[in-house]
Amino acid sequence: MKQTRILLIGDQNAGKTSLINALCNESITTFPTIYQEFRKVQIDKLKILIYDCPGNPSNEYNIQQTAPVAAIAINLEHQNPLLYLEYHHNLVKDKPLIIFIGCKCDKTLHSYNSIKQQISKILNIQNVILLFTSALNQKEIAKFKEDLSQLLYLSGQIFDDDLQSQHRNASYIEEQDQQFLNKWSQFLNCCCMCLKKEE
Ligand SMILES: Nc1nc2c(ncn2[C@@H]2O[C@H](COP(=O)(O)OP(=O)(O)O)[C@@H](O)[C@H]2O)c(=O)[nH]1
Ligand SMILES: [Mg+2]
Q1: Domain of residue 112, residue span
Q2: Ligand 1 centroid to 18 CA: how many Å?
Q3: pTM of the prediction?
Q4: What pLDDT, in 10s, does the model give residues 138-162?
Q5: What is the pLDDT of residue 56?
Q6: Ligand 1, atom 12, residue with closest C-alpha
Q7: 10 Å Cβ neighbour count for 28?
Q8: CATH number at residue 114
Q9: Number of folded domains in the chain?
Q10: Is the pLDDT confidence value at 169 over 70?
Q11: Which segments constitute the G domain (predicted)?
């Protein structure tokens, strides 16, 4: 088994959590992410740990994660989806691999090439790695999985799972914390739902 870690950031509502849900065969989400969550995605023999970040960076938003890969989600539904691109890129520009993910491609008027060119121009980088996908389209998700795992293998940013077991304690504590936080976030989501109903 091989594994890697991805820090997933980008504007609130870009479709980050829905994309992870789709990768895990879960339904798309309608609630904002409150706390940085730690999710596991399996693509064949590659285990990917994805840090799903809330849209607005706060104290809880830990950018200094051990993830060697950063993914910046772009909301293709927006007329100007690259408004905060520079800001997000600045947060992760030290990562060895940065990829851009155009989310909600089922709902866009932007073309792949024009988004790629704009990213290149705004950030002044030559080799922009851009993937388009839609959490609503199974075909798109299957293609995304294939492209993502190929990209990760090619980049060399993957590691033997044995390495992970040497740090079993650290990883175990992290996962326990995560389970606790996930419960909290579910609880808070329920509260939000109740408040909405009362309004
Ligand atoms: N049409 C369409 N809507 C999506 C897609 N992904 C997410 N959404 C919707 O966009 C909104 C924000 O999604 P969410 O995953 O919470 O975004 P996040 O804040 O980046 O985690 C939700 O209302 C989702 O239902 C997609 O691929 N296509
Ligand atoms: Mg979210």
Answers
A1: 2-170
A2: 5
A3: 0.83
A4: 999 999 999 999 999 999 999 887 6
A5: 67
A6: 13
A7: 14
A8: 3.40.50.300
A9: 1
A10: no
A11: 5-64
Let me know if residue 58 belongs to a domain. yes
Residue 161 vs residues 1, 43, 98, 139, 148: alpha-carbon distances, Å:
6, 14, 22, 29, 18
Strand runs (DSSP E) across 69-155, as ranges? 69-75, 97-103, 130-132
Query: Is residue 19 one of the residues assigned to a domain?
Result: yes
Q: Which atom of ligand 1 is nearest to the CA of 107?
A: 1
Q: Of the bound ligands, which one is closest to the alpha carbon of residue 55?
A: 1
Residue pLDDT, tens place only, 25-56: 877 666 677 667 788 899 999 999 998 887 76
Q: Is residue 8 within 8 Å of residue 51, measured between CB atoms?
A: yes
Ligand 2 centroid to residue 166 C-alpha, Å: 31
Residue 9 contacts residue 71 (beta carbons within 8 Å): yes
Q: Is residue 192 part of a domain?
A: no
**Would 145 be classed as within a structural domain?**
yes
